[in-house]
Specification:
The complex is a heterodimer. Chain A is mainly alpha-helical. Chain A has helices spanning about 5-25, 35-70, 75-90, 95-105, 110-115, 120, 125-150, 155-160, 165-195, 210-220, 225-250. Chain B is an all-alpha fold. In chain B, helix 2 packs antiparallel against helix 3, helix 4 crosses helix 5 (about 110-135) and helix 7 packs antiparallel against helix 9. The chains are: A mainly alpha, B mainly alpha. At the A-B interface, helix 1, helix 3, helix 4, helix 9 and helix 11 of A face helix 3, helix 4, helix 7, helix 8 and helix 9 of B.
Chain lengths: ~260, ~240
């Protein structure tokens, strides 16, 4: 740490602390004392984390067959997978979310779906958010995994075949783990991007962290302070994700040539 | 001329130009999106070049300032940054104008959008360009310095030509991001393609006409850009040996 605190950095830290102090002293923070807003923020942060984790997991599960189809699949599987990835990656996520929520959501009323047991779930906003964010992950990670599956050394797979390991076991114990290990840093970066995409679902009435700040702005007409708090919250969450993935990467011993 | 009710219009009528169709609204939004993306990308490139050279060759303070800028911008969601800057930039500008004893102005929304997205683009472009400069063989730069070239001349004659090939793939991705990030301006009410699509589809309820059409337009930009950047990379790599044996 001694190398970090050079004289100019001490100066910059003092300036930064001064700015924080100015924001705290001269800003209007009285709304933070309101238990209603505290509760909203806690729920919102929890929802942001939940959305990031769930959609990353669902999306990765979807991305594995998509990546596999593109890497080694026959053309009739590879072509649709490629089209899916191109469409997801080539259009704005906001538009995908709105298409699902407003478009797909408008098809259901008046059909059998409205009478079915699924309706209480499908009339809410969160299923559409989860589906849209998961499909987005699937599109981006499918492309990442395509490269990852191809980059596993062929000798590994041949050796496993020579050992008589069944195809599914080979995939589960040799091919997939090695592919995932190679792209772990990339997936870490994509998780940060995914966290930064979650504010988009506030546009379809989901009260995650960003929407909470918007609500406070509407209630109290205070503009900057909730937004600054928002930026700090997202920076902390980003830091957590970076640390988590650093820990993940340390778990698998790797030899760097 | 009165238009027939929406239910009697076909997809072609809805997407058509003129009184009954929404085609002109969509195309206007599309044009706005492209203009904002171009402006933000160009301005972001300027920030990126300055940031990359600052990070690599600047003094200790410049280096750390650039690091703070890129880290902060890349850690906070674009939507949050856009909102902060959307309120802060005109606010600060007007405070400065008042302090100088002039009258306040209303910034055109278009300009604010471009500046805000350029600020975000600049952080990412800094990182791409920094990586590309680092990939230039060090001997080339040293040789140029040994020839007595001034820093500007080294940058213009040696670093830029050699780094272009390394930077093009990353810059291409960022251009695609820039076109898609324009959609975020819909949230602050700017009439770009996503907002136009939203208005057209919520008025007519023809969601599955307008959204696929707009997505087709976005895809069109993406595909054309991918082809274009492929050509640029080919041009930038002219004379280089193909490493794939």
């Amino acid at each position: 740490m001694a190398g970090f605190w050079k004289p100019h950095r001490v100066g910059m830290a003092v300036v930064a602390l001064g700015l924080v102090a100015l924001a705290v002293i001269y800003g209007r923070w009285e709304w933070l004392a309101n238990p209603k807003y505290q509760m909203l923020f806690v729920k919102g942060i929890w929802l942001s984390i939940w959305l990031t984790v769930v959609t990353m997991c669902v999306g990765m599960v979807l991305a594995i067959p998509i990546g596999l189809a593109q890497a080694v699949g026959p053309w009739y599987l590879a072509a649709p997978a490629r089209v899916f990835c191109t469409v997801i990656r080539g259009t704005p996520l906001l538009m995908q979310i709105w298409l699902l929520y407003y478009g797909l959501g408008s098809l259901f009323p008046g059909t059998w779906v409205q009478k079915s047991d699924l309706w209480p779930i499908l009339r809410q906003a969160w299923p559409y958010a989860v589906v849209a964010l998961s499909l987005s992950v699937a599109g981006y990670e499918g492309e990442v995994l395509r490269g990852a599956f191809k980059s596993v050394p062929h000798g590994q797979l041949e050796a496993a075949k020579a050992m008589g390991i069944p195809r599914f076991t080979l995939f589960r114990r040799i091919w997939l783990p090695q592919a995932l290990q190679r792209v772990l840093p990339t997936i870490g970066g994509e998780t940060v991007l995914q966290l930064k995409s979650t504010p988009l679902v506030s546009t379809i009435t989901i009260m995650e962290t960003y929407a909470v700040a918007g609500r406070i702005r509407q209630d109290t007409f205070i503009i900057y302070e909730p937004l600054l708090l928002l930026a700090v919250i997202y920076m902390c969450l980003t830091g957590l994700i970076v640390l988590l993935f650093r820990w993940f990467e340390a778990q698998t011993p790797s030899r760097t040539a | 001329m009165a238009c027939p009710p929406v239910s009697q219009l076909s997809a072609f009528d809805l997407l058509g130009l003129g009184e009954c169709g929404w085609g002109d609204t969509l195309l206007l939004g599309f044009g706005n999106s492209i203009l904002i993306a171009l402006g933000a990308y160009a301005l972001g490139f300027g920030i990126g070049v300055a940031g990359a050279f600052g990070k690599l060759y600047g003094g200790p303070v410049t280096k750390d300032m650039a690091a703070v800028y890129t880290t902060l911008v890349r850690a906070v969601p674009e939507l949050v940054l856009i909102l902060i800057l959307y309120y802060a930039v005109p606010g600060l500008l007007n405070q400065a104008l008042v302090a100088m004893g002039r009258e306040t102005i209303v910034l055109p929304q278009f300009l604010t959008g471009v500046v805000v997205l350029a600020f975000v683009q600049g952080a990412y472009q800094t990182e791409v360009l920094r990586g590309a400069i680092l990939a230039v063989p060090h001997g080339q730069i040293e040789a140029a310095r040994a020839m007595g070239m001034s820093p500007l001349l080294v940058a213009r004659r040696v670093i830029f030509p050699l780094m272009t090939a390394n930077a093009v793939p990353g810059l291409g991705n960022l251009w695609l991001n820039a076109t898609k990030d324009t959609a975020l301006l819909a949230v602050i009410g700017f009439a770009e393609l996503t907002k136009a699509t939203f208005q057209a589809s919520s008025t007519t309820k023809a969601f599955f006409v307008f959204y696929p059409a707009a997505m087709g337009l976005y895809l069109l930009i993406s595909l054309v850009s991918i082809l274009g950047f492929g050509q640029i990379e080919k041009w930038a790599r002219r004379g280089q040996r193909d490493v794939r044996g």
